[in-house]
């Protein structure tokens, strides 16, 4: 069978592109090597009936009204503002660092203005700011850096703050007020029925065919298409021609407490300095589900396994640029998504990139059709 588009990957990038193309009347085949849609945002009920995220917590947040309204076509929302605590020397403190964190940690009673002065005195100015260590020291100084960031980063990335590009730490703000929300975005919600239900609606067009547990090599032997949208690892697409791009992986340890209504005070608790895991997430905070028990996940970062996070270092970016040049020469393939673009995207950023990709493809198709019509008329 012939398709207008083959979309490789049924996560956010692939599903958004498929939905947009089908909306424009294109016939789309979506494949994924996993047995489910949704990519890492896939959710399901565990054997105890609790809605969980098998690949770790996914909390939607964005400042883009356009992206929020686009996804709202496929889901109702549950308002949810994520809060995180970090365990330092046996005590739980708000993270990102705020006025409460500093006052409780140091036994102070500073006003917002005094917190600002405290941080100004504590910070170690760095110029230029090249690494994540530069970012953190420049913002909060060495003591807070060592208590909250250095150990967590070492576990998460297998690297010191000084070995990571500045963008990693720049994602985490520092506040002088008591705002203890993890994100400050204008839109903070969770899909009311879960992510998988949202993806099912996104992919429900009769012009979209979804095949799961299928890899690209298999489909190449049996199907035909005009253009491919690839959302997997870009180095794998080119058979690792220049060597493998470094990714950080995760191992998830799920558990259920049958007689515990709530295990921890916030959705996620970070452990920057203790244990081999980085954090524990309790899903009922995120979903609002009522259940007599509760389900948790511990995250253990590791070097090997499925690729989750591109490792942001200058030498890795240079290697990616070589693959990007190969991708640019592929006129019949478009690369989009965290793995295909080797970018540490949030979910909304992936959606935005996919919407732009689909718009560009459809614009090219329209332009090509007009050229063809003009040639026939001429």
Give an overview of the whole structure.
By secondary structure, the protein is α/β, with parallel strands linked by helices. Among the domains are: 145 residues, Rossmann fold (3-Layer(aba) Sandwich), CATH 3.40.50; 87 residues, no CATH class. The protein is 36% helix and 21% strand. It has twelve helices and 17 strands. A seven-stranded mixed β-sheet has the order 8-7-13-14-15-12-16. Strands 10-2-1-11-17 form a five-stranded parallel β-sheet. Strand 3 and strand 4 form a beta hairpin. Helix 1 packs parallel to helix 12 and helix 4 crosses helix 5. It is globular and about 70 Å long.
Question: What is the subunit organization of this protein?
Answer: single chain
> Helix proportion of residues, in percent?
25-40%
Enumerate how many helices there are, as a single number. 12
Shape: globular
**Sheet with the most strands, sense and barrel status:** 7 strands, mixed
Global Rg? 23 Å
State the low-pLDDT regions, or none: none
The name of the CATH architecture of one domain is 3-Layer(aba) Sandwich
What are the key terms here?
378 residues; alpha/beta; Rossmann fold; seven-stranded mixed sheet; five-stranded parallel sheet; 12 helices; 17 strands; 36% helix
């Amino acid at each position: 069978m012939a398709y207008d588009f083959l979309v490789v990957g049924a996560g956010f990038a692939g599903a958004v592109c498929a939905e947009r193309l089908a909306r424009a009347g294109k016939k789309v085949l979506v494949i994924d090597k996993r047995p489910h849609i949704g990519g890492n945002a896939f959710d399901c009920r565990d054997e105890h009936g609790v809605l969980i995220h098998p690949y770790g917590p996914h909390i939607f947040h964005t400042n883009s009204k356009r992206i929020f309204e686009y996804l709202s076509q496929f889901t109702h929302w549950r308002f949810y503002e994520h809060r995180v605590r970090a365990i330092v020397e046996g005590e739980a403190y708000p993270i990102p660092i705020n006025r409460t964190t500093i006052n409780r940690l140091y036994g102070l009673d500073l006003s917002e203005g005094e917190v600002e002065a405290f941080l100004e005195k504590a910070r170690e100015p760095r110029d230029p700011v090249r690494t994540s260590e530069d970012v953190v020291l420049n913002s909060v100084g060495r003591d807070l850096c060592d208590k909250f960031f250095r150990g967590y980063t070492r576990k998460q990335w297998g690297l010191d703050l000084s070995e990571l590009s500045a963008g990693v730490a720049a994602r985490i703000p520092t506040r002088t007020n008591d705002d203890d929300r993890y994100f400050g975005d204008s839109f903070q919600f969770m899909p009311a029925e879960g992510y998988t239900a949202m993806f099912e609606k996104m992919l429900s067009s009769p012009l979209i065919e979804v095949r799961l547990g299928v890899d690209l090599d298999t489909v190449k032997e049996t199907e035909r298409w005009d253009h491919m949208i690839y959302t997997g690892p870009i180095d794998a697409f080119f058979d690792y021609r220049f060597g493998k791009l470094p990714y950080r992986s995760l191992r998830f340890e799920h558990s259920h407490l049958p007689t515990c209504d709530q295990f921890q005070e916030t959705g996620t608790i970070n452990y920057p300095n203790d244990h081999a895991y980085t954090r524990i997430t309790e899903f009922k905070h995120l979903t609002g589900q009522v259940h007599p028990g509760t389900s948790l996940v511990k995250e253990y970062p590791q070097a090997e396994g499925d690729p989750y996070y591109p490792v942001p270092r200058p030498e890795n970016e240079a290697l990616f640029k070589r693959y990007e040049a190969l991708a640019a020469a592929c006129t019949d393939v478009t690369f989009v998504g965290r793995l295909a673009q080797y970018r540490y995207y949030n979910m909304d950023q992936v959606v935005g990139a996919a919407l732009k990709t689909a718009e560009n493809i459809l614009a090219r198709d329209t332009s090509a059709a007009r050229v063809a019509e003009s040639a026939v008329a001429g």
